[in-house]
Amino acid sequence: MPLPRSPLHDQHEALGAKIVPFGGWEMPLSYPEGTLAEHRACRSGAVVFDVSHLGTVRVTGAGAFATLQRSFTNDLGRITPGRAQYTHLLDDADASVLDDIIVWWADEETFDVMPNASNTAGVLEALRLEAMPEAGSTEALDVTSSRAILAVQGPEARRMLGQIWPDAAAVNRFNVVDLRWHDVACRVAGTGYTGEDGVEVAVPSEAAPALWQALLSAGIIPAGLGARDTLRLEAGLPLHGHELGPGITPLQAGLGWVVAWDKPNFRGRKALDAERQAGVARKLRAILAESRRPPRAGQAVLHDGAIVGELTSGNYSPTLECGIALGFLVPGIEIGNTVEIDQRGQLVPARVVKPPFVHRPT
Amino acid sequence: MHFPDELRYSSDHEWVRRDGSRIRMGITDYAQDALGDIVFIQLPDVGAVVATGTAFSEVESTKSVSDVYAPVAGTVVAVNEKLIDEPQCLNEDPYGEGWICLIEPQDADEMTGLLDSDAYRALVDE
Lengths: 362, 126
Description:
Number of domains of chain B: 1
Shape of chain B: globular
Number of strands of chain B: 9
Low-confidence stretches of chain B: none
CATH architecture of the domain at 9-55 and 145-234 in chain A: 2-Layer Sandwich
Order of helices and strands of chain B: EEEHEEEEEHHEH
Oligomer: heterodimer
Mean pLDDT of chain B: 96
Strand order of the largest sheet of chain B: 1-2-3-9-8-5
CATH superfamily of chain B: RNA polymerase II/Efflux pump adaptor protein, barrel-sandwich hybrid domain
Helix content of chain A: 10-25%
């Protein structure tokens, strides 16, 4: 079966993008300028990513709020309609992070739950299992194929987007607003995955090519998923399948803030409570290498000659011009400690640092 | 994609050029394009004696690592140290500034057994 394609596939091909399988989709890895140039454009100007491979599960009804509260770790009671929240779906048995999710709370009884591409079916299944009929009816519908999602990111993102669509450029961080672009109903959120300011736009598939072209005409540079990965790594953000996934809990990943312990219950709570009591066996750490050689997932980390952990992501940081990585280390290794990364037999000196590697200019 | 006629090519995507009694080598335009932005090279060791097909250098891009193989047997006599700080030369000018090393070949005629530009182009067009 051919892999699903973004509604912008033809635009990517026309730009000469390298298209690769990604999360079960065919998506652009990079455009002819290349990953490094696209990365730098996002740190200095404005870029647009096609992230249509992300899922959208639309959860509606009187019972939607209660169902999501019971399914996910974070507390929607901390926000209001018109806001977005980062949250986790846990495995009920061992508190593994089955998916990390952004919820766009559009209006009182409408939530757009945005899982990672390949986890959409699992999220739908969990929502069905955790449904709270006593709170009212809840409908969960996979609407992924009905829309494209464009992420406009970078220090100049709002200014450049404002030239063609001022209302969208004015959507504040973690706000969610329904807007029209030339009479097309869109949903815009002040979210992203680059460590830069910007917005993400859900636009109906049939209108996506016109919006994409308008963004490029405004001087916004197309960027592929290769740059998105180096940007999120510099920002110290976890990627499901690397820093989150089977066997990895929010506490190990240093994301305890995503867990609302004062909620009455949520999926995976029992197992997570037990780990909280016992203490975590490993912790996600940010590691800055002295060499420009890109560290890679799976490479061992050593301290005083002994293996103390393993990398889950690594690459060359275009901003810092050296290797950066995330990995799980034993609890005794702290920020400031020196370690070594075994890069294909070569031991490269490195240091445990406090993430992010690259701070957003203020 | 550009494959100069005056070069010879290996099926592992290295190019070679006769340079006096020596052989200059690097990676092809096809290889650099497939790798994407190259950010690191582990150069061969000067003085290393290599057999044809030995993995003797590594290039890493933002997406992957790839071995570079000796296209002919011989001794590595010089390496392009500029690539240590400017590995992007491998992308920007693979047949010029992006050369990797000079090899003193055991058999000066070995390179004639490599692919010519037409045969290499046919290989990568497959």
